[in-house]
C-alpha cells in the first residue's frame, strides 16, 4: 500500500488523505453516542444500587424484627392462656354440677317405685289375701328392675354358668351332683350387677367340684 502511495500523483495523494480523514471523523461520530449511552447506563445502575448497611445498622434492623416477633408471640400466648383459663374454670364448674346433680335422673326414675311401695305398705296393714300382696310386691320388683335396666344396670347371670372371676366371686365349693356340673355355679348367694358393662358388684356364688 505504501509503495502505491509513493508512485501516486500529488493530487491523488491529497484526495486519498482527505478520504481517510473523512472516514475517521465518521467513525468517531458514530462511536460517540454509543459511549455516551453506555456511560449513562452505568451511572443509572450505580444510582439504583441498594445502599450497603453498616454492621450497627444491620444489627439494629435484626433487633427490631426480633422485638416485633416477640411481641406477636407474646400476644398469642396471652390470648391462649386466657382462653385455657376460661376453659378450665368452665370445666371445673360443669364437673362440680355433674357430681352434685349427676344422679338426679336416676333418682327421679326411682320415685314412682317408692310411691308403689308406700301404697303396698298401707294395703298390707289391712290385707287378708296374702297372694294378692305377694303379686303386688312382685309387680313393684319387676317395675324397679325395669327402671334399673333403663339406667344401664343389668343382673349378672349365674344359673348354670361357668365360673368367671371377672363377674363371679366363689364363696364356697361343694361336690357337684353330676359330672357336667363340675366347675359350674350351683347357687347364687348374692346377686351381682353391672352398670354400662362395668361390674359394680360381683355375684357371690357356690361352685361345684
* Range of helix content: 55-70%
| Radius of gyration based on Cα positions | 54 Å
Q: What's the name of the CATH homologous superfamily of the domain at 153-209?
A: Head domain of nucleotide exchange factor GrpE
Number of distinct helices: 5
Helix/strand structural class: alpha+beta
How many β-strand runs?
Answer: 6
The CATH architecture name of the domain at 153-209 reads Roll
Task: Please give the CATH class of the domain at 153-209.
Answer: Mainly Beta
Main sheet, how many strands, which sense, barrel?
3 strands, antiparallel
Enter the CATH topology name of the domain at 153-209: Nucleotide Exchange Factor Grpe, Chain A, domain 2
* Low-confidence parts: 1-6
Shape: elongated
Average pLDDT, rounded to a whole number, is 82
Describe this structure in words.
The protein is built from five helices and six strands. The radius of gyration is 54 Å and the shape is elongated. It has 209 residues and is α+β, with helices and mostly antiparallel strands. A three-stranded antiparallel β-sheet has the order 1-4-5. It has a three-stranded mixed β-sheet with strand order 2-6-3, with no helix packed on it. Helix 4 runs antiparallel to helix 5. Among the domains are: 47 residues; 57 residues, Nucleotide Exchange Factor Grpe, Chain A, domain 2 (Roll), CATH 2.30.22.10. Strand 4 and strand 5 form a beta hairpin.
Amino acid at each position: 500500500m505504501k509503495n502505491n502511495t509513493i508512485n501516486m500523483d500529488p493530487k491523488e495523494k491529497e484526495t486519498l488523505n482527505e478520504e481517510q480523514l473523512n472516514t475517521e471523523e465518521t467513525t468517531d461520530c458514530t462511536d460517540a453516542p454509543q459511549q455516551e449511552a453506555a456511560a449513562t447506563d452505568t451511572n443509572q445502575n450505580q444510582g439504583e444500587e441498594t445502599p450497603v448497611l453498616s454492621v450497627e445498622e444491620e444489627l439494629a434492623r435484626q433487633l427490631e424484627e426480633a422485638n416485633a416477633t416477640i411481641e406477636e408471640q407474646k400476644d398469642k400466648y396471652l390470648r391462649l392462656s386466657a382462653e385455657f383459663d376460661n376453659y378450665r374454670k368452665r370445666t371445673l364448674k360443669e364437673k362440680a354440677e355433674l357430681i352434685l346433680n349427676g344422679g338426679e335422673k336416676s333418682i327421679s326414675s326411682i320415685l314412682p317405685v317408692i310411691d308403689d311401695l308406700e301404697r303396698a305398705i298401707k294395703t298390707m296393714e289391712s290385707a287378708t289375701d296374702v297372694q294378692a300382696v305377694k303379686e303386688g310386691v312382685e309387680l313393684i320388683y319387676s317395675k324397679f328392675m325395669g327402671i334399673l335396666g333403663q339406667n344401664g344396670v343389668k343382673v349378672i347371670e349365674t344359673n348354670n354358668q361357668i365360673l368367671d372371676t371377672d363377674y363371679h366371686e366363689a364363696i364356697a365349693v361343694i361336690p357337684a351332683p353330676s359330672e357336667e356340673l363340675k366347675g359350674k355355679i350351683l347357687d347364687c348367694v348374692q346377686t351381682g350387677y353391672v352398670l354400662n358393662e362395668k361390674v359394680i358388684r360381683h355375684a357371690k356364688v357356690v361352685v361345684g367340684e
